[in-house]
From TrEMBL:
InterPro entries: DNA-bd_dom_put_sf, MerR-type_HTH_dom, MerR_fam. SMART domains: HTH_MERR. It comes from Streptomyces polychromogenes. Coiled coil: none annotated. This is MerR family transcriptional regulator. Pfam families: MerR_1 (PF13411). Residues 1-57 form the HTH merR-type domain. Keywords: DNA-binding, Repressor, Transcription, Transcription regulation. Signal peptide: none annotated.
Length: 110
């Protein structure tokens, strides 16, 4: 992880590292574990807003309310996935239209 990424996660409220007496950040094992979860979720394409909402229940170690949180989170993830699929469909249509235009333009150039 880059220092810049860690500071970004901290600015977004995704991690809260400890501090040494000299002010340097202290990334204990639980913070490192949390960073790995954040990174995995970000790599999955989830927005920071969703990660920030679900993260406490994923990393606090308790099972209190997990089923409700998971159901709500899965609903949010499904909605995000559906919006992503719709955007992909629009982009695919645009690409197909551009391909058709290019084919036609090349054909008339001959």
């Amino acid at each position: 992880m880059s220092a810049r990424s860690l500071r970004h996660y901290e600015d977004e409220g995704l991690i809260v590292p400890g501090r040494f007496s000299n002010g340097f950040r202290d990334y204990c094992q639980s913070t490192i574990d949390r960073v790995l979860v954040v990174r995995s979720l970000l790599e999955s394409g989830l927005p920071v807003r969703l990660i920030r909402e679900i993260l406490p229940s994923l990393t606090d170690g308790s099972d209190a309310g997990t089923e409700v949180v998971c159901a709500e989170f899965l609903h949010e993830v499904q909605g995000y996935r559906d919006r992503l699929a719709a955007r992909i469909a629009v982009l695919s249509d645009q690409r197909a239209a551009l391909d058709a235009y290019l084919r036609e333009a090349r054909r008339t150039d001959l």
